[in-house]
Specification:
The protein is mainly α and 134 residues long. The protein has one domain. It is built from 3 helices and 2 strands. A hairpin with an 8-residue loop joins strand 1 and strand 2.
């Protein structure tokens, strides 16, 4: 294997250059491709983490909006016909309203908790990536 050294400008390190062997050039190309693939994977991972957090935030807001829509759609008490025997369905409807409201609030809380959990776990990833690149 022939290896030549090239002296860079003053203050810069010495660089090694592989001169002749085709097998070493091919290996260098493979290594460079792996390094570029790794860099691309890091970029993709960073973007996927951002998208997951954005989705969890959207999902929490979506559930909160559904809870508010359900509250606004409730029938006012004056609109209920008290002359018929509709008291049992009205009572069940009230329980259903409470259950649906509780479910939507629970789903929103789950999404917010997931958002907080992942944000905390991924908080140091950009710093790690930056230190890796330096």
């Amino acid at each position: 294997m022939k290896v030549c050294t090239i002296q860079a400008h003053e203050g810069q390190p010495e660089y090694w250059l592989i001169c002749t062997t085709p097998a070493l050039r091919i290996e260098w190309c493979h290594s460079r491709a792996r390094a570029m693939h790794f860099s691309e994977e890091v970029e993709l991972l960073n973007e996927e983490m951002r998208q997951v957090l954005a989705f969890l935030e959207w999902e929490a807001c979506h559930w909160e909006e559904r809870a508010m829509e359900h509250v606004q759609m409730q029938v006012p008490a004056a609109a209920v016909d008290t002359t018929t025997s509709a008291t049992i369905p009205v009572i069940l409807e009230g329980a259903l309203d409470k259950g649906l409201r509780a479910y939507t609030q629970c789903q929103a809380a789950i999404q917010r908790k997931l958002f907080t959990h992942f944000s905390a776990q991924w908080n140091d990833v950009p710093t790690f990536i930056q230190s890796w690149n330096d």
